[in-house]
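Journal club side-thread
Mid-discussion, someone asked how the predicted structure for our own chain would compare to the paper's figures. Pasting it here so we can look after the session.
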Amino acid sequence: MTDRVTVNIENGVADVRLVRTDKMNALDLAMFHALIETGEMLKRDVAIRAVVISGEGRAFCAGLDMMSFAQMADAKGNRTADLAAREFGIANRAQQAVFVWRQIPVPVIAAIHGVAFGGGFQLTLGADMRYIAADAKMSVMEVKWGLVPDMTGILLMPELARNDVIREFTYTGRVFSGTEALAYGFATRVCDDPRAEALATAREIAGKSPHAIRAAKRLLNLSTEADPATILRVETEEQVALIGSPNQIEAVMANMQKREPKFADPAA
């Protein structure tokens, strides 16, 4: 895993880095495996309170590695069978490399510089937030190769941008800047140093009650897929579970006593 993705954990913040710098962190089979393995590991770690995912070198992620593309295009290969297989519940391997970040029970921030093209762009969609450099470049690039976005892009893009905007970029593959991404809804914040600001936000989140943060992420994930009655019911259930719990009491006491809170990690 460490030749594709590295993880450094400090004070509850997981600093995840794509490190295939010679290929601008392009996605190959090993990268898909590493992303899934890393995400699954973080899902199980109850001490994790926030995650930042970024790329080393010149780019966040340049998209699909061309060698992988050639293998997929080879009618004699098994790439189409790989895509059809639902190895991870509702997702195939490539989709899970993105969707696993949505499944991580704590907030995930993507810090984007250089380029995020095609699958690299879709990887950013799995995060809760996207901090981006003004001069970074993004593209829903699959149409350039006669393909469609198929790494959760069709599922997750509508949460962020207007339908007509999504259609324009999906149909044209046009490259747009970090500043434009903010205007279109694909970015949360434009930053001079996206990774530094993402880590600062992650540390801020890590200082909040982990039970409340995890409950909030469950609710926000649910809000995109459930009916209003279900959302309102679960919203109440989450709040009832929090009220009077040890971490909720600690949050109140720390604020009243003007001190840093000491929160307990969730049970495994």
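Post-session note: The chain has two domains: 5-205, 209-257.
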